[in-house]
Amino acid sequence: MKKTASILLALCMPFLLSGCWSSEEITTLAIVMGIGVDAAADGEYEVTVQIAQPSNLKFMSGGDNQDAYFNASSTGIGIQQQMHQFETELSREIYNGHMEMIVIGKEAAEGGLEQIMDYFYRESEARFNIPIVIADGKASDLLDVELKLERLPVSRLAGMLSTNRVDMVVRKITMDDFLRNAVSNSSATLPIIEQLEEGALETKGVAVFDKYKMVGELDQEQARSMLILTNKYGGGIATIELPDNGVFTFEITKSSASVKPECENGELSVNAEVYLEFRVSDVSEIGELYSDEARHNAEKMVNAAMFERLADVITRSRELNADVFDFADIIYCRYPRESESSIKNWDEEFRNLPVSISVTSKMYSSGAVLKNIQ
Amino acid sequence: MSEKKLTKWQFISIGVFFMMGTILHTSFVSAIAGRDAWLIPIMGFVMFLPTLIFCWRIGNMFPNTGLYEINELVFGNIGGRIVTFLYFLFFLNVATLNHVEMSAFSATYLLRGTPIVVCGIMIVMAAVYAIKKGIITVGRASGALVILMLVLNAISFIQAIPQMDIDFTAPAMVQSPGVYARSSHISSTIMYGEGLALMVFAGRTGKKVNMGKSMLIIMLIAMVYMIQIHLREVLLLGPLVQFTRLPSLEAARMTGKSDTVSRTESIYSLIMLLCSLFRVLISFFVSLSALRKVFRLKTYQALVVPMAAFIAAYSLYALESPEDSYFYAVNTTPFIWALFTFVLPMFTLVIAVIKRKAKLPDRGGAV
Description:
heterodimer; A: alpha/beta; nine-stranded mixed β-sheet; B: mainly alpha; 13 helices; 76% helix; 0% strand; disordered C terminus
């Protein structure tokens, strides 16, 4: 009896081991590489998914890039409903596990991202570390951007944020970064990407959020200054306009900010000390840079220019009533009890928070020259 | 089943592996304590210390004697069986809740599309198979599994270091006392308290095994393990740790510099599954043993399948959904389970001491 049962069990095994209940073949999946969300009429969303065609994703020179993906769009209430719509249309199950990028249209961001983020947060396939960008226009257009070296538009967008560290103006913000800010007293920011007419892509500062709602923008310089103050700046090129239309271009090679909160007699304030190291890239008005005095003057010029820019971004963030510097968290970490009531009323407090800034810089190098070109 | 006695290290490895099964339950604590979740295992341990002392004293009074046998020695034939039946209810609940959590985890993260009922039945079938084959044999393998788990956890932690932010832990200990009291109580009754199941194995240990000392070692290792798990979650997820259903897995999914490395989450998911299965297995086994004691059965083999069916049905239908299970576990369980993890051991010790003292004059006379 036992032997018969064992034989029967052994015979059943090949059928049981052929796959699990919920097995999905790659040919039955629609692998979503990127998703775009735009606002539509009556509070609805236009959802665009970029679906990879794996057979056409192989490395090859030349060929028709468009074959590696296709975009599908659907409009309706919520994201999940559109996903089901895609599944019906494509006769395939939508798979979000390989998603590389979420693109949100500016109008949708201005309307608020609660519902959109909620979908991705609840969706267990999507990862928390997917980058999010704001399209300066429609997300669906950005997902259809002209390809150069990449096989997929989302790869081009993702690559753009990665190589951005060469001249950092915005940084990659992932879903978890955004949500962390949204649930705290700080304001979240997301990079804005603009598609130029000739098909080129450009970062256009950052979108600033009050919780989940986009309330304004910081331009390129303000975005850079914000990164410097939040100690997230990876370096890049900056310019200072000189009198008589001249330009002093320098590359910031090192940046560090020490933001210290203070509490005196219950009055909160923030003291930010910024240190920069730079190398001279090019100067339109060739002057002497090799004496101590000249170097000192150049450093003073950079200090003054950077101070103005840092002050400008603080003013702008106050206008937007958005603490993009995480001051609330920094203060709360240092003075949790003293700041408790202020944190509860942070919108008001932030507008009146005294912030003192000091900038020191060091000219690290004047480039690969010993003397000025005369 | 093997009649060989468990050595000290075999017993400790069973205990540690059992405690590692709490990995699916970290959200019980982190949802309440947030950034301070990593401190809660220490507070929970302190809260569990009295129980540990009771167990130590009981273990010293009745060396190499299982929990149910101790009940009969202390409370007598009928009283002992009543207390054992109470423990049966407790361990049945432990098995059920762990089963629900594990089924939900499998259906949500690993076998998407598979009905939760099917996942639940598969888990129960695995438990039945293991128990039929001999729980002690399975337990002996836990030594290797503990080492594997510790190595994989260490790798996972190191992998995550570049993404960690130490600022997510600040400010520490500034939340209301109620937050710490509640989360420590959950940690004490659920994370550590379920470890009382290990007392059942005392009767299967060799003569050199000191129950109290072994339990202390197990709980200390479990504490360090839980601190590490919670710390990793907090340092990676920050404030999101309070909102995430399965912070351990989400943290694992965020680790790794390259895509290839970050996809080790599949292995991490399997580890979580294995640990949880062991927890279900042990709690299932100790409930069976309790029932065998209550009904004076020679073996529990006849009870295995009916009990498994009961656990599957109870966990999947009585608790209706994983959400119900979660709220039951966080809001109700800690208070009910305190009866089993604190009151009963204390009561057992008090009665045992009184009975022993009552017998002392006779002994004194003999000397």
